Amino acid sequence: MVSFILDTFTVRGPNGNHPCHVTTPARASLSELKDGSWIRLFQLDVARALAAQLVLAADYLHTQGVVHGDLHLGNILLKLTPHFDQLSPERLYEKYGAPEPEPVIHLDGKPLPPGVPSHGIVPIWLGTASEKITLPEARILLTDFGESFSCSNLKELKYESRTPLVIRPPEARFEPDKPLSYASDIWTLACTIWSIIAQRPLFEGFLASEDDMTREHVDTLGMLPLEWWKKWEARGEKFTEDGKPINRNPFRSWRDRFEDSVQQPRQREGMPVLGDDERDAIFDMLRPMLAFRPEERCTTKQILESEWMVRWTLPTYEKIPKSEK
């Protein structure tokens, strides 16, 4: 479930030397699959299996002393289908389309400078709409370790999170002098699991600021720890001093978000919804993962022992034929 380096080489060209890594090939990211869909949903069994694998992969990294540092749908890929590497070039092009050369041109019509190729090739699309992914296809590869670090290596400690703002853990803003830890992965892991089962992300913000995202956090999870609350200068614009929203519509609570992001879209599309028992189990698992204080968040081991993992997601993942894992 974790990509690894198969080979390395260096490209020496007119624009310099470029070190390259050959990694495990894969299909498309979960983000791209949702972008390729009108309804932006995974089938329920697929969502469960994806979530199970993501927690298993994160647990493996944490066991090895590594914080991923950038967990989100764009860094989770679907593995290739089992017999993909047996396709001939002709069959590959027949199934997925032949390479499409696109001319590289100067916008002002001038000749291309030395070192610029005359054509580029449009990347092949091996994905499909998210709702069309089947359970046997729901095998993940966790990638992009550019922000990863070791908690045990003092020289590698990180204080700045480069995770997208909508899923960035709040301690990155309110405790900038403390190093990030495994708990930062737990926050983004919770946000990513929500995005796997839901149509929309848990915290939303288009071109959002830090204040916008903190408002989303308080709307959803309640008041910040007191010292953070006092430090947040914009709190009075939307909240009373005791954390109540001020005459604001829409105000979307945790349960509101679950209904309008998970249940209602699935009902509209005629897809199965989550039963009350499973919904409550998801809540029981996600809320400790989203504790504001990083030291109060659960660990990957505790997540794997949660009711939702034990009763719903891990058993669904185990239904994938072992020959295809």
UniProtKB/TrEMBL annotation:
Signal peptide location: none
GO MF annotation terms: ATP binding; protein serine/threonine kinase activity
Protein name (Swiss-Prot/TrEMBL): Kinase domain-containing protein
Keyword Kinase: yes
Residues in Protein kinase domain copies: 1-309
Keywords: ATP-binding, Kinase, Nucleotide-binding, Serine/threonine-protein kinase, Transferase
PANTHER family referenced in this protein's UniProt entry, alphabetically: DUAL SPECIFICITY PROTEIN KINASE
InterPro entries found in the cross-reference section: Kinase-like_dom_sf, Prot_kinase_dom, Ser_Thr_dual-spec_kinase
